[in-house]
Structure formats: structure tokens, C-alpha cells
Design brief:
The complex is a heterodimer of chains A (63) and B (171). With 63 residues, chain A is of the alpha+beta class. Chain A has three helices and two strands; from the N terminus they run H-H-H-E-E. Chain A starts with a helix and ends with a strand. Classes of the chains: A alpha+beta (63), B alpha+beta (171). Chain B: It holds the Pfam family ATPD_C_fung.
Amino acid sequence: MAFSWKAAGISYLKYTQICARAVRNALKDEQRLIAQRRDEQGIKFAKWDGGKQGELKLINPQQ
Amino acid sequence: MSFLARTARAAFQLLLSSFLLSVRYYATEAPAGSGDRLRLSFALPHQTIYSKAEVQQVNIASTAGDMGILANHVPSIEQLKPGVIEILENPNTSKKYFVSGGFAIVNPNSSLDINAIEAFPLDEFSPEAIRTNLAEAQRVASTASTEEEKAVAKIEVEVYEALQAALGKTS
């Protein structure tokens, strides 16, 4: 029962992310604004070919 | 000749006994950290709250149930529920944090490592925000169309209910 989210196809990492976001949203305003910045995550990558950097791409799943 | 053999045997036995004394067996008690204090490390990805600090006791909410950890605790790994971690630095000073989830690792040498995504002292939460977010999550949990949305909302309901219970206990 404790892991009913597993049946819905949610992984442990996803689960902890949801919990963390819920906790951040329950804070008082001033702490919440600082904490919510941590919720935004993404990766930046570029393919290097022949010693030259290719196009820089940004992947942000929240957008 | 027999004298020589006897001295050799005595020397060998001396060597053997000193070797045996230095070996630790399964039944040997582990040396305590320092006194009977627990060494606590409590870390988040963005902040270290305790680093090898000596404390009396730590109470955690694990998926296996609520538990109190003292020095010389049996080694184990516990998954933390969204809930309160109470740190008793001394018998009469305690600090409470609400953690979103993570792991507590009890090491054999009286040290405890707690890792969590988010942890805040209870007074940084707004009861108002908890109430409105809980109502919203409950609404979504009962009206969401997909299974996944429902599951997400149920997780949120669990978190906010745990928060309400945690704040209720202090006031």
C-alpha cells in the first residue's frame, strides 16, 4: 500500500521529486521562493566533432 | 637441541597469541564512537545540516515504521517517508525537520548518515499553504482522468497530511 504509486508506473526518483516539490510548495513565502528555484533542472549539451564544439542544446523537461 | 626446539615453540606460541589478540571476531563488540554518542551526518543536495556532529538520539520516520536511533545501533538502511526527523542533541534540546524523503544509513561504528532531497525546520512551513495545497491535491486525486495524475495527486495528499500531522504535534 505504501508503494501504490509503483503500480501507476512512477519510479522512485519520480516519487521523491513529487514529494520534494510538494514540500517546497508548503513553505512560507520567503523560503518558498528560494527553494522553488531548485525545482528547475535541465541539461545543456553539445557534440564535439574534430576538436570543434557543435551546436549547444538545452533540454529542460519542465518547459 | 631439545632446548632449541622448546624456545622456538615458545616463540611461535607467543607470536600466535599476539596475533589472535589483535583479530576481531564476529562476536567481538565494536568499539564505541566516542562515549555513547551517535555521530550524525545529515545532508541535502544543496546543504549540509549536520556533519559528523555528536548527538544523543535521532528519531526517524522510515517506511518500516517510526524508529529511534541511539549509539551502537544495529547497522541498517532505512528508506525515509515524507515525515519528521527529530534530532536530540542533548536529552533536553531537540530539533525537528520535515524531510521530503530519502535514506538513513546506520553504520556499524555508531555513525548515522541521513540523505534527503528537502528538509526544513517545522516553523518554516505555512499552515495556510498546506491546507490549500491539500485541498487541491484531494480534488485532483478524485477527479483526475489518468491513472498517473491520480497517483501523483495521491502522493501529494500523503505529503500534506504528514505535514499537517507534524505541525499539529508541535502546537
